[in-house]
Amino acid sequence: MTEARGSAGPSGAAQARYAPGTPCWVSLMVHGLTATQEFYGALFGWEFQPGPQQLGPYVRALLDGREVAGIGQLPPDRHLPVAWTPYLASDDVDVSAETVRLCGGTIGVGPLDAAEAGRLAIGSDPSGAVFGIWQAAAHRGTNITGVPGTPAWNELVTFETASVAKFYETVFGYTQEAEVSADFDYVTLHIGGHPVAGIHGVGSALARDRGPHWVTYFEVADADAALALVTDLGGHVLGPAQDSTYGRVATVTDPEGARFALIEGPR
């Protein structure tokens, strides 16, 4: 179990424009859009409104009327892994996408316009982990942080940190802070001196059926109560909650198998 490295902003803050490289949005593509809305609505208290439909049916999740995340529906013939995907902010998604390619990554979708909301691309790093790139226009990204039901942290789980951290540093301008430990391979990515994301190298412990992947942590008021609710709603708990410096953390999946983490901040 990895440790979350802090929250995305002050309690209940309405996020201003995100600095390039900062995770600014999370999105999930699923097969059953209605059932998925019911799961996350019950778990996090989200409500939903329609969003841009360029990639098919899509809704934005709202908390207290402010945008938190997106959920879209996969075409029936697309048998892709169901996973939460973080979007990293960019001032020019076309330039960022080309840099991804030049640095050994791939771009699978876009760049393309999402109506008046902004411009996006979806790609993968050289290890295969999928992420999005977002150039904001009308839609800046997640508009509330620091309260239960909002994204608190994004972490890449991969084989080893050194090479892939260099990729993200080159593409998005991060500075790196490595964990000083012989048996813990972890790098925190900073923008403007602030931690914004992490990379955790787990070596052979990486599940072969998943490969390198990003994990989104969502804040909850009570981790143990949230785990019980996940089970009641048809999701799965992958391990008991564990206490860390950054709070009480557990990893779960929704009913379609999308993996994410829950974090209850220190009291």
TrEMBL record:
Pfam families in alphabetical order: Glyoxalase_6
Source species: Streptomyces griseoruber
Residues covered by the VOC domain: 150-265
Protein name in the entry: Bleomycin resistance protein
Stored PANTHER family: CONSERVED PROTEIN, GLYOXALASE-RELATED
CDD domains: SgaA_N_like
